[in-house]
Amino acid sequence: MGDSSSSSVDPAMMEDDDREVEQEEVSKLVFEVTHEAKLRELLHKINSIEIKLCSDAKKEFIKLLKGDSGGQLLHQYVQMSSNFSELMSAWKLRQGKPGMSHILSLISAILSHPDGKYIPNDKERNATSRVLDKFAQSLIVEKLEDIYKNLNSKEGKCQNAALLLMASLVRRGSGLASEVAKNFNFKIQGFSKLAEYRQRQNDKKMKYSTRKAFVGFAMSFLEVGKPRLLRWILQQKEMYSGVLRGLGNDDEETAAYVLSTLQDRVLTEQSLVPPGLRSVLFGSVTLEQLVGISGMDNSVPVAKLAHNVLVMVCNDPCNGLMPDLKRQPNPLRGNPKRLLAVMKKLKATEVEYHRDLLLAIVRGRPSFGSSYLEEFPYNLEDYASPAWSDFSLFCILCKT
């Protein structure tokens, strides 16, 4: 006979388990009821004609989304209002009027939430993701004209919010990114100026208020990393020129974000971006910016990052500067003139990264060493000069 105690279940344990399940269900129900009431309250205030009420409700909504239960709140909101009628009503109420930035920034926060992105085998999250993707698609189809108006607004908050919203659409995935690339008018008046800098009245340089958001929008296409999209979007030369020409004046975080994205997404074989297009991307002004950044203190991480990018751009023929006439079936002529101009701008006796880059270029193609020495930009006659190391550099180049 078997031990009856081993096959029996303790009724007390079953009762405890049932009680735990019941408590979980009650807690979930309380959460849903409480948050549904809060959501309705916030959405009502967001549709108020009073800007202060709208602003406060937007801030609280975003704060809740960023909280520990933000994902649950997002799922509940999508279930409550899958057509986002309250947000669209608020959009209509605010369009062309003060306070529109609050609506744009809230929608951006909703579309950007990580719990609203697709993840394999997560049914609840993916159900939410599909609803949000459909909403995002409707904005691309129906609301671009409104977004253009906000980009042309004289209110910096509106311009920033519009750029952040567009970036949030792109980052939802390659499909929506391609839709934005296909439908967005990159030639609208004043768009490229959003990447520029202003001057204060006292002539101190300050970052233009929309630059960081502009950079985020431009780089969001590259973050998605779809090869065909990269090849097409990089032809929007004014947008990327605006990003790269201002790198030398950006804070370290922004510069590092741009350079790391270029390094990981564009300067790779998988990107399928042709050498000619890469060469255009890294024009003379951009290269000068990178030389300046790499000349910063070696302890600054972005200096090393700029150096690594320069080494890749200047030495790999696939990036459009270094020639490779032996390559078959299509020899690469590169751009020797631009590459030599970079070499002449390097402070090779003062900056370690500059010296390393100079020697890397010469090792890659010794003829550049000869061309460089013809216009050697250092003094070799003043032997008493502290810059006597110039001569050692000269010798290294000759030996190379």
Automatic annotation (TrEMBL):
InterPro entries: URB1, URB1_N
Gene source species: Rhizophora mucronata (Asiatic mangrove)
GO terms (BP aspect): maturation of 5.8S rRNA from tricistronic rRNA transcript (SSU-rRNA, 5.8S rRNA, LSU-rRNA); maturation of LSU-rRNA from tricistronic rRNA transcript (SSU-rRNA, 5.8S rRNA, LSU-rRNA)
Domain URB1 N-terminal, residue spans: 85-389
Ranges where the record places region Disordered: 1-21
Protein name as annotated: Uncharacterized protein MANES_15G088800
Pfam family of the protein (one): Npa1
One GO CC term, this protein: nucleolus
